[in-house]
Amino acid sequence: MEEPFKPLSLSIRELFGNTDALYKIPQYQRPYKWQDEQVYQLWDDIFEAHENGEDNYFLGSIITAKPRDDEKSAYVDVVDGQQRLTTLMILFCVIRDLFPSLNESEIEENPFAVNIETINSSITSLNKFKRLKLFTHRQHQSDFENLILNENTTELNKPYKYQIRTDEEPKYKFINTAFIFNSKLSELGKEKAEKLIDYLFNQVKIIRIDCKNREFAIKLFQVLNDRGMDLTAADLIKSFLLEKLYNNHKDDSDVSKMKEEQFISDWRDMEQVIKSCDINLNELFIIYEYYILAQNPRKSLYDELQNAFKEKDPNEVINDIKIFANTYSKEICEKQDKTLYSFWYIRWNMYWKSILLTALHTNYGEYEQLKIGLRNFYYLYWIAGKTLSQIKQTSFNFIRWIKENRPLNEIIDELDNKIDADKILDLVSSNLSSEQIATESWIKPLLLLIEYNSTDDSKLAFIELNSDLHLEHILPVKHEKYSEWGHISKETSTKWLNSIGNLTLLSGTKNIEASNNPFDVKIGVYQGKGKYDDKNNKITAFLITQSIVMDYQNKKYNQQWTIEAMIDRWKWFFTEVGDLLGVDFEKEIGQHSPESV
């Protein structure tokens, strides 16, 4: 039985000098990305090992696999290690250009001395066929050859920092790496450089793990690599689609090239769109996977999408995903919309994004009403204390219903049945009525929903759920310190302090100033008259807090924060939330009255 992989301990001389030392960077790999820090680190590691007299220095491992599209190819795909191999190849080219007479006087006496022939044979194979030892990305190969392989590395100038940082143009990183090595070797001088180069080729080791196929190589990489995958599922999907594209047009090179260029262009457009969004490329593919499957995935993202795409044209697939990405960017990520804003606080973000994108991508006719129904469903289950397991299957059902173009009233009926079966409304009522609601993760989002609902569309702006947003206790936690709060009994405080009848929102320094103070001082802070407020004396931006100021100015509750004020706040909250989430809270609204307290 053939072993799935074969590890080999190789010196750098063997890694690039053996007959099987022909490497190719597959299309799914990202371009060369090393900048100053990584190149200097590699140089320092090797130089220090040499200076310290280490017998052997381990430079890490690389993983290779036979390419699936051409089993007869002499080249192997570099699944992991392309950055080191490319950097070493650039180093070889600099050595070649800087020291054409390398070790000429040493080669006869020292069989391990590295001469220019050793360097040249590490760059290009001169056996039966002349082949480059390292073939980089197709779209960047001409730059690599012109700048690095074609014997002019010593004439290159240091690129600007902004050029080096450009991911789409790795040629500047090629140039930068060559410039660094040229500077280091020149500074070292020929005699010392020769000793370092001998050490590099003979005593620096790399473990090359040769795998029988790419799939196993990827799995091995995932197991061995604990620093986080450089190679993502999106990269593998790209590889699969490109291989499929090549196979579809292998008999027509012109069509193949045109299709490949279109594919790469669409892929890059999609990447650029997602860079400006809150999700990465892998997350986009997860959302697309949910849209395609409309059910809980049973296999890995790569396996599921490979199966979904196997009968489809790669160019049509990537174009559809590009449209998907553009829709996400414009209609979800950048959209100014009250209902959409409320989704950003929900923890189950991959599910609601998948559902809304499915509706947008399929031009579902009742999209606006669907958003509200979906928002209400998630918030009710969140408030009820339910976890992902209770909403996951319904989320996938949502996607399926939308793809089936089921009428919204049927979808809402399905949701209502589930809500009834899970007794969600009873749990929601109990949790909203809690005397300790201030500790709940959903209380700020609920208050923000009310805030958005009260805000004019012309002044609409998303409010971040961050450390600058504070839950304000109108009756302060340490109210006993002030005689002005003497009208609040211990019993009333225990019952109302952390209930919804005593909470509002404040931001930044206003909350710090307001915290534990008499009511009139708090009102001053709400109005913008605190010592940290600017000259404009701006009132708090939150309308739900401004209403407390208005009541005070109108001398309501005798300009005090009383139990009657908290009861009214309680009723106001349940009325607002009931209208927003489509729930009848009449019983809860009638739960408190001045006479019953």
Distance between the termini: 81 Å
Beta-strand fraction estimate: 5-15%
Helix content: 55-70%
Low-confidence stretches: 532-536
Mean model confidence by pLDDT: 88
Q: Evaluate the radius of gyration.
A: 33 Å
Tell me the domain tally. 3
Record the strand order, biggest sheet: 1-8-3-4-2-7
Number of helices: 27
Characterize the biggest β-sheet: 6 strands, mixed
How many β-strands, per DSSP? Answer: 10
Using the alpha-carbon principal axes, give the shape. Answer: elongated
SSE class: alpha/beta
Describe the structure.
It is a single chain. The chain is of the alpha/beta class and about 600 residues long. It has 3 domains: about 5-225, no CATH class; about 240-430, no CATH class; about 435-595, no CATH class. It contains 27 helices and 10 strands. The chain has helices at about 10-15, 35-50, 80-100, 115-125, 140-150, 160-165, 170-190, 190-205, 215-225, 235-250, 255-275, 280-295, 300-310, 315-335, 340-345, 350-360, 365-385, 390-405, 410-420, 425-430, 445-455, 490-495, 510-515, 520-525, 545-555, 565-580, 585-590, and strands at about 5-10, 25, 55-65, 75-80, 125, 130, 135, 205-210, 470-475, 505. The strands form 3 sheets. The protein has a 6-stranded mixed beta sheet with strand order 1-8-3-4-2-7. A hairpin with a 3-residue loop joins strand 5 and strand 6 (about 130). Helix 2 runs parallel beside helix 7, helix 3 (about 80-100) packs across helix 7 (about 170-190) and helix 11 packs parallel to helix 14. The radius of gyration is 33 Å and the shape is elongated.
